[in-house]
């Protein structure tokens, strides 16, 4: 079975109206940012890492939590 996806206003919508692709996208984005921080930042001071997390990762995670409703 082929899944038909369409992206509209930044939201992935499938033909069966399930949000699994959107959830995958929302989870992968903060993971990619964390990987980027891990690769690029050499001096990993706690204060610096906390600021980077709050600035770059946390907004994506909060979006994931608000988008997921069981």
Structure keywords:
single chain, about 70 residues, mainly alpha, two-stranded antiparallel ribbon, 2 strands
Describe the structure.
By secondary structure, this protein is mainly alpha-helical. It has one domain. Helices cover 61% and strands 11% of the residues. It is built from 2 helices and 2 strands; from the N terminus they run ββαα. The protein has a two-stranded antiparallel sheet. α1 runs antiparallel to α2 (46-67).
Walk me through the topology.
Layout lengths: L4 E4 L2 E4 L5 H21 L5 H22 L3
Structure described in brief:
The protein is built from 2 helices and 2 strands, in the order E-E-H-H. The chain has 70 residues and is mainly alpha-helical.
Beginning-to-end CA distance, first to last residue: 25 Å
- What structural category do the secondary elements indicate? mainly alpha
Number of domains: 1
Largest sheet: 2 strands, antiparallel
**Estimated helix fraction:** 55-70%
Q: Mean pLDDT, nearest integer?
A: 78
Oligomeric grouping of the chains: single chain
In terms of DSSP E residues, the strand content is 5-15%
Shape category:
elongated
Give the SSE order as H and E letters: EEHH
Compute the number of helices. Answer: 2
Low-confidence stretches: none
Radius of gyration: 15 Å
